Amino acid sequence: MPLIAPQHSPAAPIPIHEGYAPVCAWPANAGVQWGDGRSFTCSTGQVTGSPAFFEAFLRNESGVWFRGEAPTEPEDRGIEKAERAAFAKFEKYLGCGDDHDWVRKHDEYSTVARCSCCGATGTHAVAAKERTVSSDGPLTPSDLQHLMLGLLHEDRRGKRDHGDQLNRYFERVYAAIEIRAERQGFPLPDPTMDQEAYDAICERRVARFWVDNRSACEDIWNSMTPEEQKASYPPYWSALDICCLDDVAKRQGHLPDLEEPSAPGMGR
Ligand SMILES: [Zn+2]
Predict the structure, then answer these.
(1) What distance in angstroms lies between residue 93's CA and the mean position of ligand 1's atoms?
(2) 95 CA to middle of ligand 1, Å?
(3) For labelling, which of 13, 71, 143, 240 has a CA lying 20 to 30 Å from the CA of 184?
């Protein structure tokens, strides 16, 4: 018997389709949920809306899941058809045994992949490549944003948990920021300081640093090729970072002449 999502329990505050019981032989490690979709008949007689669906998530290493859909009809809500469609995908998946041919769906940093043989999608099917973090070069606008937002402070004090992989990534990001900051004579506040005092010191230092280095940062961005700009991660010159840093500089009484921040080349 699969694990049925809590929203389908009659005891749920607002039970959803609690009358439906799965009909296929799902394994015990599958979590399942469903919906009967919604259909509308237009004045032209055309039926439109979202189809009934059934989803099953295997609690295995690959995080494989299956979704079936079926037209919603008044006399047959379609959930069972949707479930059978999902189950057919599951059976096809079993046909591969342990020999799936996982093809990464997004970039190399994503763990989502699709098997080219059975068509199954797994959210953890492939190992992600960990992003490299360089401590070379000067402080970037993104570094300053990290400093400004107090994220560095919170992470240095172990107050946030992003999950294993991201924790490792952020550890390297912050270590790199600390190295760059030190090299550039940007004193980082004491991480044991309380958040409010830390934020106030950071804001003052970031504003001052930004005023002194804004055009140098812009020069670096302009000297990059379009390919390098595209590949920079986090984006070196992002509209959001620049606007925030300009605002901070203005708030701290700098940049009096800067009415409009210059249009960044790349946004995020
Ligand atoms: Zn497969």
Answers:
(1) 5
(2) 7
(3) 240
Domain ranges, ordered by start, for the chain: 3-96, 141-251
Cα 15 to Cα 7, 31, 35, 223, 245: the distances in Å are 6, 17, 11, 58, 47
Tens of pLDDT along 230-243? Answer: 888 888 898 889 99
Give the Cβ contact number of residue 25 at 10 Å.
Answer: 10
In this predicted structure, what is the pLDDT of residue 265? Answer: 47
Tell me the CA–centroid distance for residue 119 and ligand 1, in Å: 6
Q: Are strands 38-41 and 47-50 parallel, antiparallel or unpaired?
A: antiparallel
Distance CA 39, CA 259 (A): 52
Indicate whether 260 pLDDT > 60.
no
Q: Full-prediction pTM beyond 0.70? A: no
CA 111 – ligand 1 centroid, Å: 16
Summarised one tens digit per residue, pLDDT across range 145-166 is: 888 876 666 666 666 777 777 7
